[in-house]
Amino acid sequence: QAFDCALNPGAPATQVFYVVAATAPPSITFPEATHEYRVVNHVLGGIVQAGTVAVRMDGVVVATSGPVGAGISDVPLPGLADGWHEVSAQLDPDGIGLVSNWSEPVRFKIDTVAPGALQDLTPTPGSVLPDGTVQVAGKAEAGSTFVIQVDSAVPQTVPAGDGGAFSLALTGLT
Fold first, then answer.
1. What span, in angstroms and rounded, lies between the C-alpha atoms of 68 and 56?
2. How far apart are CA 93 and CA 74, in angstroms?
3. Fewest 10 Å CB contacts: which of 12, 43, 84, 107?
4. Which is it for strands 132-139 and 165-173: parallel, antiparallel or unpaired?
């Protein structure tokens, strides 16, 4: 009930009841953010109480678990196309619609295509190299890693940058 400055009572207030759902959303533990995978066919998430877990992939609910206990929930997913995806999850602990918020989305990439051959290699394959240090450079699939080995030397793992360029100094050549 409200009162004005002179303490005149207003109309009686209507009682309003609110239900606060204090259910924590699942925390997605797989897939991991910004990682690349060949296949992701399930989502793993930690949940703090029993219930049903819904999984949203790229903004669309694609899977719902059966009732699960507190702990780890494993929800199967449909096949995913190559490219970047976002997954989030929601917990319904009681089946009457008092659901958690959606979890923070996890962004990951599906990549089923093998990288192409290295390009623009210098020095060119088959070249006679001088003793000492030689700079090897070229271009590969952006973000990929590969191995360079000269004769019986220790193999070197080389990352390609965002644009695909790479460079490696080979030392101790004889």
1. 17
2. 16
3. 12
4. antiparallel
Taking the C-alpha atoms of 146, 147, 150 and 155 in order, what is their torsion angle to the nearest 10 degrees? 160
CA distance 83 to 165: 21
Token couple for 24: 């924590």
Provide the residue type at 144 as one letter: S
**Cα–Cα distance measured from residue 56 to residue 22, given in angstroms and rounded to the nearest whole number:** 21
Q: Which of 8-22, 29-43, 48-62, 159-173 has the lowest mean pLDDT?
A: 8-22
Alpha carbon distances (Å) from 72 to 53, 64, 65, 69, 127: 11, 14, 12, 8, 55
Amino acid at 123: P
DSSP state of 41: -
Residue pLDDT, tens place only, 34-86: 888 888 888 877 777 788 888 899 999 988 887 777 777 788 888 889 999 99
- Residue 79 has which token pair? 């096949």
Give the strands of the sheet with 71-76, arranged side by side: 27-30, 42-47, 71-76
Q: What does pTM read for this prediction? A: 0.64
Amino acid letter at 2?
Answer: A
